[in-house]
Amino acid sequence: MTEDGKKVLMAIGGHIGDAELTCGGVLATASLRGDKIVTVALTGGERGAPPHMSVADYRVQKEQEARTFAEMLGGEAVVLPYVDGELPETEEVKFAVCDLIRQYKPDVLMTHWKNSMHKDHMVTHRIVKDAQFYAGLATMERPLPPHYAAGPYYAENWEDAEDYVPYTYVEVTPEGFELWYKAISTHWFTVHSSSFHYRDYYATLMKMRGYLARKEYAETFTIEKREQRVIRTGF
After folding, report:
1. 93 and 127 Cβ atoms separated by less than 8 Å
2. How far apart are CA 234 and CA 83, in angstroms?
3. Which of 4, 13, 173, 177 shows its CA 20 to 30 Å from the CA of 20?
4. What are the tens digits of pLDDT across the range 38-75?
5. CA-CA distance, 8 to 29, in Å (whole number)?
6. Span 79-115, pLDDT tens digits
7. How open is the CA angle 201-83-70, to the nearest 5 degrees?
8. How far apart are alpha carbons 233 and 235 in whole angstroms?
9. In terms of DSSP bridges, do strands 217-222 and 76-82 run parallel, antiparallel, or are they unpaired?
10. SS3 state of residue 158
11. Is the pTM above the cut of 0.85?
């Protein structure tokens, strides 16, 4: 939480564009409330380079796209230096994410579901869980003091669909949707990819999930099964 009492939301993806697509409506809506937004990409996602551009040049472009998206939401983008498709599941990476959690002090973490067609997404899921644990552990000595962030909440992603069942529906306001749509359109692949219509798919998904939530737009998340319980004091 910020000094003026606003929430901090951190969305962590395996590649630039993952968090922006799957959590972006919620992030944009929160930003319009004055909350702080932080996107983290563990790799650049540069191996999706278009035919006219080298992988190295596309990495540079994608890092700028990450910054542009975050800045349009009044937030910050962090991109770690790992290579697309080669994200290592090491203590080095886990502590890097741990340190970001301690630095930005998010109230909520969002990331990938555990099953995916993409190895980087599955590795990211496990990295974030361990980093959350390290960040909140008082006896884990790091440069910054411990901080506990709620979650992780696992975002709905067409690439991470195996066994994913929505648990929480979070409203995306019409104004948040509009801001997200403008911001996500600055990511080249979401508009121009020849393999998948990313922007259109997630825009349609937000609308469809909104119908189910009795809202205009919504995004869904799930949590660990052991945490899926509703506690009542009575009826």
Report:
1. yes
2. 52
3. 4
4. 999 999 999 999 999 999 999 999 999 999 999 999 99
5. 13
6. 999 999 999 999 999 999 999 999 999 999 999 999 9
7. 50
8. 7
9. unpaired
10. helix
11. yes
